[in-house]
C-alpha cells in the first residue's frame, strides 16, 4: 500500500482505497461531480470517494469577459495542479472547459453521455411568453460567449448583445433582479442539471445557434500513468458522445481556436455515420464559413491494447474501437482544413485581434 494513494480502514476492519475527486466550488460543478461520483459508486461499491472543491481563475475573475482573459485553462489549471501534486486522483470538468491539448501527464479518461448540447434562452420574468423573434427591437440579450453573440447578431439583427459573467446562479440573479437584460443565453445542459428546466423559454436550434465544442458533456481527467484509475473510469465512456466530441475537438484544434474566437459545431451519429457541421464567424457574425462532412465510424470490436495508440485530442478511450476514434478525429481535421482553405484563418485572426483591442 505504498505510493501516493490513500486508504481508509472501514468500521468492519476492511481497508478501502480512497479516490479523491477534484471539482470547482460552484453549485453546478458540485452537482456534476456528485453525478459522476454516484455512477462510480454504483459500479465500484467498495471504493471510498472523497470530494475536494476548489476555486479556479475563471471563478475568481468575474468582471472580465472570458475571451479577454486570454488564459486557455481558466477553469482547469488549479484542478490540474492538485492532480499533479497527488492531492486529488480524478477531476470532473465540463468538457467544453478543457483545452484540446492538455499538459503533459494528463488525459481525459472518460466522457459521459451528453446532456442536451444546445443553448437556451432564459427570459426576464416581464417578457414571459416571448421569443428572441418577438422581443421588442433593441432588447438587450446577455451572453458571455463570442460564439453565441456572433451567431445571434447575424440571426437577430434587431437585438443588442452585451457581456454577462458569473456562474449560473449569479447570471440568473442579474437577469431577474435588474432591468439590464431582456433575456440571457445559457447552456441548456447546465440549467437542466441544476433543476431549472422551467426557466428555459426557448431551445435554440442549430439554424439559430450551433453549440460549443464539447458542450453538454462531462469529462473525467486523470493522470495518464495511473493505469488502474484510467481503467476504472473508462467504463463511464459513452461511445457516441466520445466520437462526436473527438471530431469536435479535432476540428477546433486544427483551426487553432479557443474561447477568444467564435467557433461552433453540431454533430450527430446516425447508424454508423458521424455527421459534423462546423463554422467560424467574425465577431459581428457578418462573415461566416460553414460546412458539413460525414464519415463512417462503425464501432467494431477491435480495441487498442496500447494507451499510446489511443489518445485522440487528449482523450484516452482504450475500450472503444481505435478505427472509429481515428475516423472521428480525421473527420474533424478534414472539415477544419476545408474551412481553412476557404479563408477561415483570416476570419479567426481578425476576430482575435478585434477582441484583444476591445
Give a written overview of the molecule.
- The chain has helices at 27-43, 57-60, 66-69, 77-84, 146-155, 168-177, 188-193, 227-234, 239-255, 322-341, 344-357; strands at 6-9, 15-24, 48-54, 90-94, 106-111, 119-123, 140-142, 160-162, 183-187, 202-203, 218-223, 263-270, 273-281, 288-296, 311-312, 315-316.
- It has 358 residues and is α/β, with parallel strands linked by helices.
- A hairpin with a 2-residue loop joins strand 15 (311-312) and strand 16.
- The chain has eleven helices and 16 strands.
- Helix 9 packs parallel to helix 10.
- The model is unreliable at 66-72 (pLDDT under 50).
- Strands 1, 2, 3, 4, 5 and 11 form a six-stranded mixed sheet that branches.
- The protein starts with 5 loop residues before the first strand and ends with a helix.
- Helices cover 33% and strands 24% of the residues.
Give Rg in angstroms: 21 Å
Spans where pLDDT lies below 50 across 5 or more residues: 66-72
Query: How much helical structure, as a percent, in the residues?
Result: 25-40%
Order of helices and strands: EEHEHHHEEEEHEHEHEEHHEEEEEHH
Mean pLDDT: 88
Largest sheet: 6 strands, mixed
| Count of β-strands | 16
Shape, per Cα inertia axes: globular
- Structural class from helices and strands? alpha/beta
* SS strand fraction: 15-25%
Number of helices: 11
Distance between the termini: 55 Å
Task: Give the SSE map.
Blueprint: E1 6-9, E2 15-24, H1 27-43, E3 48-54, H2 57-60, H3 66-69, H4 77-84, E4 90-94, E5 106-111, E6 119-123, E7 140-142, H5 146-155, E8 160-162, H6 168-177, E9 183-187, H7 188-193, E10 202-203, E11 218-223, H8 227-234, H9 239-255, E12 263-270, E13 273-281, E14 288-296, E15 311-312, E16 315-316, H10 322-341, H11 344-357
Parallel strand pairs: 2-3, 2-4, 7-8, 7-9
Antiparallel strand pairs: 1-2, 4-11, 5-11, 6-9, 6-10, 12-13, 13-14, 15-16
Amino acid at each position: 500500500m505504498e505510493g501516493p494513494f490513500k486508504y481508509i480502514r472501514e468500521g468492519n476492519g476492511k481497508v478501502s482505497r480512497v479516490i479523491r475527486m477534484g471539482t470547482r466550488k460552484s453549485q453546478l460543478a458540485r452537482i456534476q461531480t456528485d453525478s459522476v461520483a454516484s455512477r462510480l459508486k454504483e459500479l465500484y461499491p467498495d471504493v471510498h470517494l472523497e470530494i475536494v472543491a476548489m476555486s479556479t481563475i475563471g471563478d475568481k475573475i468575474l468582471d472580465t469577459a472570458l475571451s479577454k482573459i486570454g488564459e486557455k485553462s481558466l477553469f482547469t489549471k488549479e484542478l490540474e495542479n492538485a492532480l499533479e501534486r497527488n492531492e486529488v486522483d480524478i477531476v470532473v470538468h465540463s468538457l467544453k472547459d478543457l483545452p484540446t491539448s492538455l499538459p503533459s501527464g494528463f488525459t481525459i479518461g472518460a466522457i459521459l453521455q451528453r446532456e442536451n448540447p444546445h443553448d437556451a434562452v432564459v427570459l426576464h420574468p416581464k417578457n414571459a411568453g416571448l421569443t428572441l423573434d418577438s422581443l421588442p427591437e433593441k432588447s438587450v440579450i446577455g451572453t458571455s460567449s463570442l460564439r453565441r453573440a456572433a451567431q445571434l447578431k447575424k440571426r437577430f439583427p434587431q437585438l443588442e448583445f452585451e457581456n454577462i459573467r458569473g456562474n449560473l446562479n449569479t447570471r440568473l440573479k442579474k437577469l431577474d433582479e435588474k432591468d439590464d437584460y431582456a433575456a440571457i443565453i445559457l447552456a441548456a445542459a447546465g440549467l437542466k442539471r441544476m433543476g431549472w428546466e422551467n426557466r428555459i423559454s426557448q431551445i435554440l436550434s442549430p439554424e439559430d445557434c450551433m453549440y460549443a465544442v464539447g458542450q453538454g458533456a462531462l469529462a473525467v481527467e486523470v493522470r495518464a500513468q495511473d493505469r488502474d484509475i484510467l481503467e476504472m473510469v473508462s467504463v463511464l465512456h459513452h461511445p457516441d458522445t466520445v466520437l462526436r466530441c473527438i471530431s469536435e475537438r479535432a476540428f477546433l484544434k486544427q483551426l487553432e481556436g479557443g474561447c477568444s474566437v467564435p467557433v461552433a459545431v453540431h454533430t450527430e451519429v446516425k447508424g454508423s455515420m458521424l455527421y459534423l457541421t462546423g463554422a467560424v464567424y467574425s465577431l459581428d457574425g457578418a462573415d461566416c464559413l460553414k460546412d458539413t462532412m460525414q464519415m463512417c465510424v462503425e464501432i467494431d470490436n477491435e480495441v487498442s491494447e496500447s494507451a499510446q495508440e489511443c489518445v485522440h485530442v487528449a482523450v484516452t478511450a482504450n475500450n472503444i474501437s481505435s478505427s472509429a476514434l481515428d475516423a472521428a478525429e480525421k473527420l474533424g481535421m478534414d472539415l477544419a482544413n476545408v474551412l481553412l482553405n476557404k479563408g477561415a484563418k483570416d476570419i479567426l485572426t481578425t476576430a482575435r485581434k478585434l477582441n484583444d483591442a476591445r
